[in-house]
């Protein structure tokens, strides 16, 4: 690895056959991924090459509540490390959704959505590391919710993360997508947006001492680097922002020019192809968002290269990115 993982207490090894040290405590085979994440405070999972067919998403979840009824999470760090980021499934580590997996309605009950990797439930989560993994949404084979017979809308997401620090590196995202709602109405707009990579950075994020230098002279708590997103599907007014970063904090009004090296997330050297919106930054609820650098990314044949999306956005950089065959460079709002 180019960068240190930063201190994971326990390492497990898994194979697509459901064997390996990581499967010893769980007879459910591939589902042992969730079991290991749940039952180890610091779980580093290393995956042999092959296709891991998943009938459900990978996620952190809580099995207990505190005195105020809030969920309690026992694990603080998760790393998922594949063997090879190449496209050849025989030599790469591939996480692939099974055909026609069950999906639940979204929070607004307007569409169905499914997340292959969901690590977004705990704002105190310390670290998520993803490297050398192919994420395959198997969109065309979700025939129960994809096609003209299904009118409620559907979207699939590859990685949704909320953590104080982390990185997504040298991975491929393919065969995800969004299908719009049919017919459109005032209550149910036709467009349904998905986010193949969605990273949220909580206000408490600080760069730990054993975290690599990633953003100028100051450590960035999050790094999204060297990934490729392609082969997404958007029937019936579905669309996507391929890489969305949403820092969750309310920075004070600056009294001087912001330090260009003070960034919480660095999005660098990624390739995005054939997506309506390639790169995005967003605020959420009452949070002001900012302090993100987009550097050296390649955007090909996309509708828009960059989008400033939702709520208040401050301090971000677009540096040395290459945009070719795009409908527009970006929206700033």
Stretches with pLDDT under 50, minimum 5 residues: 21-30, 208-218
Number of distinct beta strands: 30
Mean pLDDT: 79
The helix content is: under 10%
The number of helical runs is 1
CA gyration radius, whole angstroms: 19 Å
Computed structural class? mainly beta
The largest pleated sheet is described as: 11 strands, mixed
Q: Which shape, going by the Cα principal axes?
A: globular
Distance between the termini: 38 Å
Q: What portion of the residues fall into strands of 2 or more residues? A: 35-45%
Question: Could you describe the 3D structure shown?
Answer:
This protein is mainly β and 333 residues long. The chain contains 1 helix and 30 strands. It has one helix spanning 32-39, and strands at residues 10-14, 42-47, 50-54, 58-59, 64-65, 71-72, 77-81, 93-97, 104-105, 112-119, 127-131, 134-136, 154-162, 165-169, 172-174, 177-179, 192-194, 197-202, 222-225, 228-230, 238-248, 265-268, 271-273, 277-282, 288-295, 298-300, 304-309, 312-319, 322-324, 328-331. The strands form 4 sheets. Strands 4, 9, 10, 13, 16, 17, 18, 21, 24, 27 and 30 form an 11-stranded mixed β-sheet that branches. It has a 9-stranded parallel β-sheet with strand order 1-2-7-11-14-19-22-25-28, covered by helices on one side. Strand 5 (64-65) and strand 6 (71-72) form a beta hairpin. The protein is globular.
